[in-house]
Automatic annotation (TrEMBL):
Lineage: Bacteria, Pseudomonadati, Pseudomonadota, Gammaproteobacteria, Aeromonadales
UniProt GO cellular component terms: cytoplasm
Name the UniProt record assigns to this protein: NAD(P)-dependent oxidoreductase
Domain NAD-dependent epimerase/dehydratase: 13-205
Record-linked InterPro entries: Epimerase_deHydtase, NAD(P)-bd_dom_sf, NAD(P)-dependent_oxidoreduct
GO MF, one annotated term: aldehyde dehydrogenase (NAD+) activity
Amino acid sequence: MTTEHEYQTGIVGAGWLGLPLAKALQGAGKRVVVTVSSAEKAARLQSEGITAFPLLLASELAEPLPFRCRDLVVCVPPSKTEDYPAAVARLCQLALAAGTQRMLFISATSVWATGQGEEEMPTPVHARGERMLAAEQAVQGAGFACALVLRPAGLYGPARHPGRFLAGKTLAGGGQAVNLVHLDDVVAACLLMLEQGLDGDAYNLSAPVHPRREQLYPFASRLLGLAPPVFTEPSGDFAPIEGLQICLRLGFVYRWPDPAHWFADPAAQSD
């Protein structure tokens, strides 16, 4: 017999972030369902014990969703769809119709202008940030009982080693702050927000230690045996993006507060 909510948590986009999040939720005893971009990927995950449906995020999404869930996490980047804010708004409509009560939208720190603080209103200066902010607003205005936003900084971790990000390039901005956050911390923050987040919560997630780009990226590239980047003038402003409010308000603790700690742990890099 079908219950009111067949699953406790749904995840739209079971990729680099969504799949580890699904596994963490399953490990915590939650009933989880995910979406992926193709029937082939859905079948593969089904064979691994993860309930999955093919679903492409788009403004013309058909009704209804193929599942019902109490909580829904959206972690599909804007590059995956043509009109991202409209696609997210349409997903919100379908989720509400399917009985979803709590939505967690994974945004990005690109909604901030350089030097902005977490207590200000975001004022993006690039097109990607504008799309992300418009999608945030679609989630927050959709009518969920609880709408949550998490804004990770640059993502790194398994298959995303910072040593590859700028290897071999010549570019300016060596004095700019590095704003990174590890996959482990993003997954942990998602779990915490689903458990303790309050309607309207929107938090940055950015590791507390911010080296300069000219410090971190040449070092990280050499660790992989790659040509280090070369930085030229202008060096740029040191304007770190802080992610401390989630610590102060929800008690979050970064597992990887300094990317250098991860570099020094080969076992962690092979996870």
